[in-house]
Amino acid sequence: MNHDHQGVFCPAPSEPVAGPSSAFWVVVMGVSGCGKSAVAQLLAQTLGLPLIEGDDFHPPSNIDKMQRGIALADADRADWLLILGAELARCCDGAVLTCSALKRSYRNTLRSAVTDLRFVHLAISPAESLKRVAQRPGHFYPPSLVASQFEALQDPAGEPGVLCLAGDAALATLVQQAHVWLGRTNATCAE
Ligand SMILES: Nc1ncnc2c1ncn2[C@@H]1O[C@H](COP(=O)(O)OP(=O)(O)OP(=O)(O)O)[C@@H](O)[C@H]1O
Ligand SMILES: O=C(O)[C@H](O)[C@@H](O)[C@H](O)[C@H](O)CO
Q1: Which of 49, 93, 127, 184 has the most neighbouring CB atoms within 10 Å?
Q2: Which CDD domains match (predicted)?
Q3: Atom 11 in ligand 2: which residue has the minimum CA distance?
Q4: Closest-CA residue to 49 (of 73, 74, 19)
Q5: Which residue has the CA at smallest separation from atom 11 of ligand 1?
Q6: What is the CATH number of domain 24-182?
Q7: At what angle do helices 104-111 and 74-90 cross, to 10 degrees?
Q8: What is the ipTM of this complex?
Q9: Handedness of CA 28, 29, 30, 32 (dihedral sign)
């Protein structure tokens, strides 16, 4: 059992957390460069929810591996996904999480942490992903790993609680579409 930063009582992360009926948890997912951080930041801001940046929770060994151009394996991602699930569960009133969540089993690990977890999948082409990743000087993730993201990706379309969006649309459009899907049509979305 634990408490979040506001002292709200939370069940242990081993049981999926169910919040107030107005609460929801959203994962913005997809391959490298698809726009997870950009969209999630706006979404969290306009929904008034905390933002959890999944990349901030990778152990140094994972960052080191990616920096050296080695794709993460299932075993590298296992503990990271459990930690992200615990972070979601810690936010009793909901949260927006950025996480690649490339495989169904990864999404199911996150689903086991909170009830009715939603996923917004930003789908982009390998060419667009490569272009965006190559344009990020100083970022730890190398363009040489982009192909491995698409090899690992299992399309979440058809799974429960999933919205698939074209990640090359304008940011404001993407956030607006997510709001409508979440039933929050009145919120204003800034570009
Ligand atoms: N809808 C969009 N249209 C045009 N450019 C975008 C869009 N979304 C994001 N970008 C740009 O693409 C780049 C990658 O975006 P972002 O960092 O949000 O992706 P990401 O999925 O979080 O990547 P990673 O997981 O690799 O960190 C950034 O330069 C960002 O400004
Ligand atoms: O599961 C993964 O392979 C990783 O989370 C990657 O997606 C990177 O962390 C991200 O792309 C960095 O930019």
Answers
A1: 49
A2: GntK
A3: 32
A4: 19
A5: 35
A6: 3.40.50.300
A7: 30
A8: 0.96
A9: positive
DSSP secondary structure code for residue 82 in this structure: H
Please report, for the chain, the start and end positions of each structural domain, with discontinuous segments joined by +. 24-182
Which pLDDT tens digits describe the chain residue by residue (191 residues)?
A: 333 333 333 444 456 666 555 678 999 999 999 999 999 999 999 999 999 999 999 999 999 999 999 999 999 999 999 999 999 999 999 999 999 999 999 999 999 999 999 999 999 999 999 999 999 888 889 999 999 999 999 999 999 999 999 999 999 999 999 999 998 754 443 33
Name the amino acid, one letter, at 148.
Answer: S
Please tell me the distance from the alpha carbon of residue 102 to that of residue 68, in angstroms, as a whole number. Answer: 20
Quick check: 77 and 29 in contact, CB under 8 A? Answer: no
Nearest ligand to residue 151 Cα: 2
* Nearest Cα residue to 64 out of 153, 130, 142, 7: 142
Sequence length of the chain is: 191
The residue to mutate among 29, 31, 37, 125, having the most atoms of ligand 1 within 8 angstroms of its beta carbon, is: 37
Element holding 163 (H helix, E strand): strand 162-166
